[in-house]
Amino acid sequence: MASHHHCSLMIQHRLSPSCSSSIKIASFFMTGKNKVLQKALIFMDQPGINDYKQAFLHGKSISEAGHLVPEVVATIKNSVERLINEAGAKTVMVSGVLPMGCFPGFQTLFPEGDSIGKGRCHKGLNMFARLHNDHLWQAILELRLEHPAVHIIYADYYKAFMAVVKNHAFLGFKTKTLMKACCGSGNGPFNFDVQKKCGEEGVTTCSDRAMYIHWDGFRLTPKALENLIDTLFSKKGFIFPEIKFGEETTAAVERHHSRIHGGVRDTSSIVRHLLCLSQFSIFNYV
């Protein structure tokens, strides 16, 4: 009889240079649950992204936010080290950030027309995202040298998302609304107003969200998320090192490729959905 593994979540809502992950880690360490972590894949979903988002929302320039990168990445590295040293983690996956310059919310905050590249994305913001990801990749290489017995995996969200954008028409997304929010105020080229959130009065929702990549200014639609994660795990060149799955898990990924799951609302849920049949339990550590 086949064994079934329960997928669990450990969630930290925000990672910032000033925060500490000691409470989360200590709770696992002191209760003996570190034995579970030794067999789990701990998923860190875009750590640091909220710090950059808050910096931009508070008026920081791209150049000013760039000074945050070393400190943010150092905090991520420290969090991984604590998961390894204090909680006994053996497999950790850390994702880079998505290309911010391709999101309606970030583009609205930086409306300089001459900074928009051929892919309709803000070049300066995307350079910033790559700066963070380059620093993060270097930190992961250092962690691997320091902890050779631990599997530390990098998920290239940036590259995977750009692959979705490049193939958007084939995947069923509209070209004319490629950078528009499905749920927005209707103002401006991106259908997004930072003062009007989705669900508030005067904010409308598109009737064909399956043809949109962006749900609102900063989040993707379920279909876009599904395609992003499918690209990460079903194609080569986005996960380093590549994760080896059994036949059952591989079949599950293929079955769910490019399909919409109405109940799935965030990236970590889709990762858990696709990996739940693997040999890992999944912990989301955002």
TrEMBL record:
Organism superkingdom: Eukaryota
GO terms, molecular function: hydrolase activity, acting on ester bonds
Keywords per UniProt: Glycoprotein
Acetylation in keyword set: no
InterPro entries reported for this sequence: GDSL (IPR001087), SGNH_hydro_sf (IPR036514)
Family the entry assigns: Belongs to the 'GDSL' lipolytic enzyme family.
Name of this protein: GDSL esterase/lipase At5g03980-like
